[in-house]
Amino acid sequence: MRMLGNILWYFPFLGFITAAWTWLLGLLLTVLVITAPIGLGLMQYGKFLFLPFSWSMVDGKDLKRESNSVWSAYSTIIMILYLPIGLISVVVALFQIVALALTIVGIPTALVLAKSLGTFLNPVGKVCVHHYVKDDIDRSRALGR
Predict the structure, then answer these.
(1) Which of 30, 39, 43, 98 minimizes the number of CB atoms within 10 Å of its CB?
(2) DSSP structure class, residue 64
(3) pLDDT at position 43 over 90
(4) Residue 129 main-chain phi, psi, to 5 deg
(5) Span 13-38, pLDDT tens digits
(6) Are 100 and 106 in contact (CB under 8 A)?
(7) Is the pLDDT of residue 10 over 80?
(8) b/e per residue, 34-71, with b = 16+ CB within 10 A?
(9) Those residues with Cβ within 8 angstroms of residue 16's Cβ, 6 or more apart along the chain or in another chain
């Protein structure tokens, strides 16, 4: 089913265009150095959008990765500056979700985009992982570990 979802994402709905646009925007923001925290997050989100039914987006803290406190503070400042652009991105994605949901075949792809709207709004610190890792994180969270 995941493969069928990825095929539907690519061919009738041209999801690779959204994925490529997001990844290239992330690359540009990373090259600009000042906006690197946002660019790295958008590159991870673009990676997710290339195969959205096989990958998941998780917060870096869920992976128990250590982060530099200076980098975290800098990322927060840059995130505040990114907020207007993030809001515009969310509105554009909402239009895309509504357009996809109008067709029965597009509903699964609309759900994928709807679940990942938070990443468009705040891409800092998000990591693209295989869906098995996301399932394991959810399982350990449910068991209280």
Answers:
(1) 98
(2) T
(3) yes
(4) -130, 165
(5) 777 888 898 899 899 999 998 888 88
(6) yes
(7) no
(8) ebbbbbbbbbbbbbbbbbbbebbbbeeebeeeeeeeee
(9) 10, 50
Q: Which residue has the tokens 């195969």?
A: 51
41 Cβ neighbours under 8 A, 6+ residues apart: 26, 119, 122, 123, 124, 125, 126
> Could you report the per-residue pLDDT of 86-109, keeping only the tens digit for each?
899 889 889 989 998 898 888 888
Instruction: Please identify which residue in the block is written with the tokens 């095929």.
Output: 7
Mean pLDDT of the chain: 85
The CA-based angle 32-35-41, given to 5 degrees, is 115
- Please answer whether residues 134 and 56 qualify as being in contact, where contact means their C-beta atoms are separated by less than 8 angstroms: yes
Give pLDDT, residue 83.
87
Q: How far is CA 98 from CA 56, 67, 68, in A?
A: 21, 37, 39
Question: Is beta strand 126-130 parallel, antiparallel or unpaired with respect to 55-59?
Answer: antiparallel
82 token code pair: 């990114």
Asked if 31 and 134 count as a contact pair (C-beta separation under 8 A), the reply is: no
